[in-house]
Amino acid sequence: xxxxxxxxxxxxxxxxxxxxxxxxxxxxxxxxxxxxxxxxxxxxxxxxxxxxxxxxxxxxxxxxxxxxxxxxxxxxxxxxxxxxxxxxxxxxxxxxxxxxxxxxxxxxxxxxxxxxxxxxxxxxxxxxxxxx
Amino acid sequence: xxxxxxxxxxxxxxxxxxxxxxxxxxxxxxxxxxxxxxxxxxxxxxxxxxxxxxxxxxxxxxxxxxxxxxxxxxxxxxxxxxxxxxxxxxxxxxxxxxxxxxxxxxxxxxxxxxxxxxxxxxxxxxxxxxxxxxxxxxxxxxxxxxxxxxxxxxxxxxxxxxxxxxxxxxxxxxxxxxxxxxxxxxxxxxxxxxxxxxxxxxxxxxxx
Lengths: 132, 208
Known about the structure:
The complex is a heterodimer of chains A (132) and B (208). Chain A is mostly helical and 132 residues long.
């Protein structure tokens, strides 16, 4: 998926203006040094954009905007980290901010249902049905 | 504010789950994930740490940071149910990152290569002593390797009799699926054993 600011955050290009480390340091600067968020964002947590708003997108910092654009197609925290080449901690903080604004929806993980064996049974059933 | 809104229109609420794939260096974790993932295993320098001795060069004037790669794969079990497999960083000094990966997981598969059995002691210790996660141990046994009796392997690993021990071929999709099925079955049996407490969470679950 193309995002408008691919040249701001390298998605796959190796030869970008900023060396890798500078981009990473810049990313942490963006979080204001914060490394936690009140949303429980596990590596497998899925996020998506309930109602895409191009005007909102235009007001976001480049890294947040790229995350917002990517999350238009349901995506896990880990996949966002890989796809945008951002450390997990940065993705968690910036997605946490977007979730607090209601800009992204945070889907539940199986852990939220850990007292409910139905979900485990569905997972077990799903594995058994996989084509070998 | 304070909620994460509603699911996108026309899109199902989707539950994701995670299984951790652990074991020492070179025991076949990436192969195991790759044999079943619907996408090529993804990898990224996901964590930045301030671990003393970095694998990176020291940035000019800065303190030493280390980046640690995570690799993972994905299986769509149903349109609204995804399973992720995460390999643990192999090196012992990154154990604190195992806590991050383990959080919320259904359980762990610890891979063992019998020709380098000591490589997996640390992972077994971690899941026996430092984690609440259910786990199974899978001996990665491919063609041409000497076949070991599982009881001997259990002895060599000093593995608790309650921990399931299976063999698998990490290159083989069906074998990997069978191993994952074994783990989830084990997790389910422990969940049932621990009683019906907390049924009230059903249906009202999501955090966030």
